[in-house]
Amino acid sequence: MENINWSNLPFGYLKTDFNLRCYYRDGKWGEIEVSTSEEIPIHMAATALHYGQESFEGLKAFMGKDGKIRVFRAEENAKRMQGSARGILMAEPPIELFKKMTFEVIRLNKRFVPPYGTGASLYIRPLLIGTGKSVGVKAADEFLLVFFVTPVGPYFKEGFSPVSMLVTREYDRAAPLGTGKYKVGGNYAASLSVMKKAHDEGYANVLFLDAKEKKYIDECGPANFFAIKNNTYCTPKSESILPSITNKSLMVISADMGLKVEERKIEFSELSTFEEVGACGTAAVISPIGKISDIDNKKDYLFQAPGKISTKLYERLMAIQYGDEADKFGWIDIVE
Ligand code: PLP
Ligand code: COI
């Protein structure tokens, strides 16, 4: 504990004191259990293990200058987990249960919330899995909801410095009518090999195009994509991307800053017309993109990064999250 280097934390797992569990059995959610174990007992025929019945979330808590711990938009994550659960036939955790477990797991691990000014935060990882056994392909009748936390630094090791993205039409992440809009493990499994290819070739991640036509921009690995031009914040509208809560927030902040906001299909061919481009997400925050390489056509697209508007968006988002700016949109819960 004493030797955590808060200002230099990677985005990774660090053991903390407690995690929480709650079981869904016989058609109802049970009591919240506090655990110090890092392991979960699971039947070898559980649907999570065989048929991918699992969903996870990611949200953050921030230590303010005033010593208060703020959680960013927990209710949105709760709703999204409910959507993922409906999407793959799991029991939906009630919003109140999700929020209660969020606040409780932070309270129990208070000493792991990184100090103000270190640029780090406490990442909360809720996980919902099918624990009921089945060898036939069907939904479980028992589920486990787990909440653990880990202190983290930036997802892309570059932090708020330019990253580069790889584009290729040789892999798909999610089908248009598939599970791309849910936060379920299968989507990430599908992205692993092309992500490794990107990392091996020196890129921070992959910019996925739409799987059907390979014509439109979808998203950036574990983050949404946004672009700026003509005083406008543009971001892809797509059925196969995760509806990012960070992106949703940036659209509101952009409008508040006087930018136009467009959520629409974005053709890959429009890329060269943008003044700034970036990736956004809970883990990624905002990562300005300096280069996008279309390796199929051996063509690089270069951008000034970080651009002026991306920088302002980043600063305002962080100011709201750390409590340096008033929470005028009602996005923050203080953990008492
Ligand atoms: N897209 C994918 C595939 C993600 O995994 C994430 C991370 O949660 C995001 C986008 C960003 O979403 P959010 O801003 O809600 O974290
Ligand atoms: C997040 O931004 O919360 C994510 O889930 C990204 C990634 C680590 C999967």
Description:
The protein has about 325 residues and is an alpha+beta fold. It has two domains: about 150 residues, 2-Layer Sandwich (D-amino Acid Aminotransferase, Chain A, domain 1); about 160 residues, Alpha-Beta Barrel (D-amino Acid Aminotransferase, Chain A, domain 2). About 25% of the residues lie in helices and about 30% in strands. The chain is built from six helices and 18 strands. Strands 1, 2, 3, 4, 5, 6, 7, 8 and 18 form a nine-stranded antiparallel β-sheet that branches. A six-stranded mixed beta barrel has the order 9-10-11-12-15-16. Helix 2 packs across helix 3. It starts with 18 loop residues before the first strand and ends with a strand. The mean pLDDT is about 95. It binds pyridoxal-5'-phosphate (PLP) and 2-OXO-4-methylpentanoic acid. Pyridoxal-5'-phosphate binds next to strand 12 and helix 5.
What topology does this entry show?
Layout: E1 19-25, E2 28-29, E3 33-35, H1 47-51, E4 54-56, E5 59-63, E6 69-72, H2 74-87, H3 95-108, E7 121-130, E8 143-152, E9 163-167, H4 185-200, E10 205-209, E11 217-220, E12 223-229, E13 232-236, H5 245-256, E14 260-264, E15 276-281, E16 285-294, E17 299-302, H6 308-322, E18 332-335
Parallel strand pairs: 9-10, 9-16, 13-14
Antiparallel strand pairs: 1-2, 1-3, 1-8, 4-7, 5-6, 5-7, 6-18, 7-8, 10-11, 11-12, 12-13, 12-15, 15-16, 16-17
Helix pairs in contact: 2-3
